[in-house]
Amino acid sequence: MEPTTRGTWGSKLGFILAATGSAIGLGNIWRYPYVTGQNGGAAFVLMYLACVLAIGIPVLIAELSMGRHTTLNPVGAFKKLSRSRSWPVVGYLGVATGVFILSFYAVIAGWTIAFIFRTLLHSTTSFSDFLADPYSQLFYFAVFLGLTLFVVLGGVEKGIERWSKILMPMLLVILLGLIAFALTLPGASVGVQFYLNPDFSKITGSTILAALGQAFFSLSLGMGTMITYGSYLSKKDNVVTSAVAVGFSDTLIAVLAGLVIFPALFSAGLEPSQGPGLVFNVLPTIFEQMPAGTFVGVLFFVLLAIAALTSTVSLLEVPVAFLVDQKGWSRAKAVWIISALVFVVGIPSALSLGASAGLTSFEIFGQTGFLNMMNFLFGDVSLPLGGFFFSIFVGWVWTTRKASEELSLGAESSSKFLLAIWGVLLRFVCPVVILVVLGQKLFGF
Ligand code: PHE
Known about the structure:
The chain has helices spanning 12-23, 26-38, 42-70, 74-81, 87-120, 127-132, 134-153, 156-182, 188-196, 205-218, 225-230, 239-267, 278-289, 293-327, 331-350, 357-361, 370-397, 400-408, 415-443, and strands spanning 363-364, 367-368. It has 445 residues and is mostly helical. It has a single domain, classed as Hydantoin permease (Orthogonal Bundle), CATH 1.10.4160. It has a two-stranded antiparallel sheet with strand order 1-2. Strand 1 and strand 2 (367-368) form a beta hairpin. Helix 3 (42-70) packs across helix 4 (74-81) and helix 3 packs antiparallel against helix 12 (239-267). The longest helix has 35 residues, at 293-327.
């Protein structure tokens, strides 16, 4: 038995669902479509798929193996597996990244709650007026953070696992229904073209970084979420096949979301490169035209809110597990203190979409506004950077040989071949690609 503050998943399916719950969220439905829109469509989608397969899934397996082997949070896992003082710094980076990502993620997640009511009540306030109202922004942000806090207080099995079970199948069904409808809209085919017919002249260094960042963000990689979730896995579970299942479902939901958004976007004559507001501008145009649109719209935003919640829970779980394991805090104390910190850090993000002119319009690192800056720094830079260190650490320091021993527990011998491919990708492809892409973007080489 683990000490009482740590849990384990109730079942193997429970883990897959929870890890999928962490992976599937706003990353798929909010971030993926707008990043695809900003990066020219289909060619970006191909880059994204390549990043998921060649880099995302190998890093996912690496994180899970570290977590299950050590049954610890990211900082503890590095401490247990290496005597060097430097490696745990990567774990600290992950813990901090969790706080920073949660601080803006919960702002956007708050919009999903607001949109439940906007759809239900046929609100006439425009989206930009809503964004510019500081009270609404802070209110929904606080509500969403409160929900997250509530679930995480409940602990691993009761809190996280239960939610994930019902949600994923429902989300899939509603997306399929929306695709069927979106494709019938006038002018939809232009959107399908944009989304599925690649124009490779649109690929640049920043496209590749965006694809890599999106793969890490969407799969919840590079900050130790999957180390933490892996630490609750039982030795009887097959880590490799679980990782593939998680990667596949996450990618499927994102790709399907694009098939809803782009046909509807072009049909409504909206701009694909408009940034973070994209899906919140497009989706209402679908629900307005659809039979029973209010009902479908409300259901959709409820599902999206729950999908976001299973992700915010995993973001909060990383710093909480760190404080519980390493500092001996009680779960409740860790949850309250981290949530309060996240709220304070998130205030500038909440006010940076119109409420405060200064926070909305300042430019830095090629990004406009505070929330976009945070999204870039922690989504596109910090996660791949963490992934770089994870691949070096598991590939070369802890070694793929020892990690493979861990990974063979619960796996049939047929996984040997898969493990060999994994070793090559993790040791060579991941670090080299991440280094080149990040270096190119940040230092221009
Ligand atoms: N993967 C989540 C999503 O796509 C976001 C997330 C990132 C969660 C990093 C945990 C860690 O919405």
